[in-house]
């Protein structure tokens, strides 16, 4: 039997375009509860794969849930989604787990990625230091996106200073719940990757 007719949800999950020729792995990383799963869900054109588990009493004293009070579930492996940015370019999105006890998975998730979005809750900037540290260690290009949970007094430049980022790293704002806003974040990352790939290397510049 034709699977398209037997699956009523199929129309809502468009197949990959026949013109798609470039597939790029992108990771969304950041501390606990900053909105990584929300972003992958908001922007994915296919039904996203999530590994969400309910947080139970067993996690009390193990997991630091400060700053994300109303949250009842957490990612225990990764989220996966897909978005076609244009006729040819397809991004495969991986949302990292945010609990500290899963941070050891990040290095494996970064494997083969072309670029990373570090999602930040401006009220818990310190939760982002480890992500920035690992990315700088691996030399993986990244941008920082501040998730607009509620109005904050700090500017994006102050966030850049707090994370000790060079001017070359884009810092943008977004609402992870909003598809268009999340898509703009991914476009900023792709622009950054293009800029890096077309910039003359330090060696060429010196010669
Ligand atoms: N007000 C507001 N709430 C948001 C925003 N983004 C996400 N949330 C909420 O914040 C909570 C955390 O979102 P998640 O997407 O689960 O966060 P996460 O980073 O995947 O969390 P872990 O996987 O547990 O690290 C959810 O209840 C979201 O609905 C936002 O921009 N504004
Ligand atoms: Mg999550």
UniProtKB/TrEMBL annotation:
InterPro entries: Gliding_Motility_GTPase, Gpn, P-loop_NTPase. PANTHER family: ATP/GTP-BINDING PROTEIN-RELATED, GLIDING MOTILITY PROTEIN MGLA. This is ATP/GTP-binding protein. Gene3D superfamilies: P-loop containing nucleotide triphosphate hydrolases. Keywords: GTP-binding, Hydrolase, Nucleotide-binding. It holds the Pfam family ATP_bind_1. Coiled coil: none annotated. Belongs to the GPN-loop GTPase family.
